[in-house]
Description:
The protein has 537 residues and is mostly helical. The chain has helices at 17-21, 41-56, 64-78, 98-114, 129-142, 144-156, 160-171, 174-183, 187-202, 206-217, 227-237, 248-271, 275-282, 298-315, 324-328, 348-368, 372-389, 399-406, 413-429, 437-462, 469-499, 508-534. Helices cover 64% and strands 0% of the residues. Helix 6 packs antiparallel against helix 7. 39% of the residues are buried.
Amino acid sequence: MNTVKQSHGSPTDKLDDSQKSHAPKSTSAWTWLNFLGDVSQSEVDVLLLSTAFKFLLFPAYRSTDFEVHRNWLAITHSLPISRWYYDTTSEWTLDYPPFFAYFESLMSIPASFIDPKIVDLQNLQYDAWTVIAYQRLTVIISELVLGAALLRFIRVSVDPSRQRILSASLFLHPGFLMIDHIHFQYNGFMFGILLWSILMACEGRKLASGILFAVLLNFKHIYMYLAPAYFIYLLRSYCMSPAGAIIPTRFISLANSVLLVFLASLGPFVLMGQLPQLFSRLFPFTRGLNHAYWAPNAWALVTAADRVLLQLVKHLDVGLVVNESGIASTSRGLVGDTVFAVIPNIKPIHTFIITIIFQMVYLIKLWSAPTYKSFVAALTLCGYASYMFGWHVHEKAILLVLVPLTLLASENYAYYKTFVIASVAGIFSLFPLIFTPAETLLKIVYSVIWGGMILYPLHKQLYEFPSSLPWVLLESFENAYLYGFAFLQAFVTLFPLMTGGNPDTEFLPLMATSVYCAVGLIWSFIRLSTLYITQQY
């Protein structure tokens, strides 16, 4: 059994003199960031250059999420809190937890001074330059929460040079660029809170870690997929002694702290008797198995298999029974249940049971080895299992996997290769979100540059030649799969031109992207599960 190497640890891990001599030189103009440690010139350069680049993206394509968040600014500014989760002026109703609503309300205050039309509830589809610049700027500013956490990770690492690469990879991640700064969301801000919570666990401040995660849950409830790992880790490593006895004072302090966070969030709605309405907005169960674009998970392969079997039934006498309602079903996330034509239908309870079974495997391991590294791996796998087998998974949810997985990427070559396969497949799976010509070139070039700046240096430091012929063959297959993305991009680009936009085949590029990315993400999931279960922590 191999033992996982510690690449960064708690503040009690001391750097030797040689490491200290190579520590980054501080930049006097940025001494106000002293709580993060000395800020080097290179770190300042990354911040300034990336911010300048994000400013250039202000005129870029915006999805409907841009109007969603503008409408939420208007709702939280124009209406009393008792109407927030009832308003239906726009189809983009408020469906995030209260802390995010409070966040929108706070951002609406300067917006009302900059341009009162931004917060006019009746001013739907408002797209003046003032609202574009303001909302884009709020994403950049709120993302500094992520940047501060990543700087702190460097300071507490026992290998700052390697951690600096990992931190840069997250701050400059193509996923954040596409989803937040083009498509438009606030993932960088919320993943910043997650990383601060993980950082607190790294530093041994587990009560603070639990409180921050409770705060995060009340910003966006999708993070509940990570909650089982937090529960086991904090219970086992903070609330219990090594002998297994409950430490009452710690258990009570953690429980009370989490309860206070939820009271601050949900309390006003409890007093107004609005919890049922709030939960109906947060958990709509009338959606199909797959989203509009099949998130590349296990169900994407099942759905593709059903489409293939349907064609076989149509053209060959194979004796399979066809569900007629499944023939018309596009399986693309329309309201209502996804219906298969040949394969038995999947229900929400099925996805829930499968997800729980996989998570239980990782939680049992975490219970027996409640270390920081074990926690990060279990956290990643809990999110991964939810992405692989969850109900109506959005393609953007891949960030729940890629962000914590990055923290494990430098452990050894096996973890690094798992990270590479998941990152390439996961980032490519986000490409369909950005489909306009100018941004298409941008997303490809930026992702390739990111890969060269991040993956290549890590490969040089971590590469290990396979120890036997089977491993050589496996490595060759994995590399061939990665090179295949170039051909996939060529197909996605050229196929619509070759077919003249034929409506009967227009779904094929999306289907090919989903299926091909799903293969890599499932293989990465298997790799990571095997590494976690078989290694000692």
